[in-house]
Amino acid sequence: MVELATLLRDACDLFDTAVSLEGKALGGWSNINIRGQSNSIDFILKLPCSVSSFGLQPYKKLYDVSLFLNRRGISPLPLYMGRLNDSKATPFIIFEYIDGVIHNTLTEFTTTEIISLKECLLNLSSQKPPGLKEYKSPSDFLIAAHTLVEKHEGLSMCSQELDMLVASFNDLYYEALSYTDTLGAWECSLMHGDLWVPNIIFQDGKVILLDFEACAYGNQYYDFAYLLEASADFHEYPPPGLLYSNEVVDVDSLRPLVLIYLIAWSLERLLSSESGLIEPSLPTSRVWSAVVDYTDSKLSRLKALLS
Predict the structure, then answer these.
(1) CATH architecture entry for 106-306
(2) What is the Cα–Cα distance from 273 to 213, expressed in whole angstroms?
């Protein structure tokens, strides 16, 4: 971490004194998240998990949308975006560290927190940050999710275990694609796209949302469905106060789309790990097994919903 801290300080004019980084990353397969301090700045450093080189700055979208939403009181403030002066010119982004309450499960949310979250998501859905992808229909969204797996460079040489998971996913994907024909068009409101419990911070009577990489225009009810389905133990019924009675049907109709995305994302991570495209120290055997089990459980859940 000492070498990384030096590289970070040299690459960023945000700091005028030494930078210290915590020795243990905060987790994640999309990004390596590390808490750090310098001067009076308490921050989170994000680095990509991929071992590939990046021609373009991959954090540009995240920086722009986070800055836009920070001004609306929804996102942490992005402080800096750049590249390290290493052999790969590794891209990075720095966010202010947000102190607050993060729960482990949705069942831990208080009634007051549920109401605050609902207000935050209503605020989010009405925002119009420029330059984001727009999914014009549910099928448009599903096709994009399936592409994560279908066009992955490691698909043709994956292990038998992973090949079986992909085959199960493809079977259910085409069923889900037919199902989306009944959902009609989307209203194209802003959605977070990755709203699970660890991405929600409660602070001084307000809600801050983290990790807007999947932010796009789609359907605001998708975030509610995602919140209910994303955890390992999904929530069949929303906690009191989260949804009005007339919203439950809309949210339930989007659960299969959430599951397709969760499965596709998990398979993409597993394929990248097998292909050596992820930082080798991250996908340990324990993490691998956990993601395989998670994927299998979501396949079973999707099959039950579509039957």
Answers:
(1) Alpha-Beta Complex (3.90)
(2) 20
